[in-house]
Design a protein that fits this description.
mainly alpha, 73% helix
């Protein structure tokens, strides 16, 4: 009886071992199939992933360039213009021609600089020239004379100074009026400008008095 039960148990064990063997083979084959499927999927998707990565880098690079061109560079040019104008250098123009808000601001800056430069030129001319005769005024005459005296002493060169006035100007002015007197003074200024050398300076000293600086 014991031998019979032992034999039956041994048969059951062999059947169980055979079943486990078949299950093991099924699991191994299933795992191998899944691995091959994953490997094939990985081989197919890797180029796509790589392409997406490169595309992302390219988009970021293009976006960075666009931001630099549309914001960073224009802002730098506007700041450069502001610093230039603050120093009194009005010749700088912002090289921007875009249609956005920054381009409009750049055109406004350029227009402002042109107006300031034009006004500065006019004011500078008025500051050194007599408004009636167009030759140097008294203040500028004093500056130029001092500078020429120093230069003549430095280079041991001669310097001539001629002072003159219009005879009987007051009588003429009182007789014919201030407008006629102004005409005489204008003619005197024009005559002196045409008569002197390029190195000479003509000035209205005051009233009907005139001066020539002749190095």
């Amino acid at each position: 009886e014991i031998a019979r039960q032992y034999t039956a148990l041994q048969n059951h064990a062999m059947k169980l071992d055979d079943t486990l063997g078949r299950l093991y083979e099924v699991d191994i084959n299933d795992a191998r199939d899944k691995y091959e499927s994953v490997k094939a999927l990985d081989e197919r998707t890797m180029p796509l992933i790589l392409l997406l990565f490169i595309t992302s880098l390219a988009i970021n690079a293009i976006a960075s360039v666009c931001i630099i061109r549309s914001v960073v560079i224009p802002t730098h040019l506007l700041a450069r213009a502001a610093h230039s104008y603050a120093r009194g250098s009005l010749a700088y123009r912002i090289p921007l021609d875009s249609n956005n808000e920054i381009g409009e601001l750049a055109r406004t800056f350029n227009y402002m600089a042109e107006k300031l430069e034009s006004n500065y030129t006019v004011l500078k001319d008025l500051a050194i020239h007599d408004g009636l005769t167009g030759i140097l005024n008294h203040h500028e005459f004093q500056k130029r004379l001092l500078w020429e005296v120093k230069r003549a002493g430095r280079y041991k060169r001669g310097l001539s100074l001629l002072m003159m006035d219009v005879d009987r100007f007051k009588t003429f002015n009182d007789t014919y009026g201030h407008q006629a007197g102004d005409t005489v003074l204008k003619a005197m200024g024009e005559y002196l400008r045409n008569a002197i050398r390029s190195s000479d300076e003509a000035a209205r000293y005051g009233g009907e008095e005139f001066a020539l600086i002749m190095p």
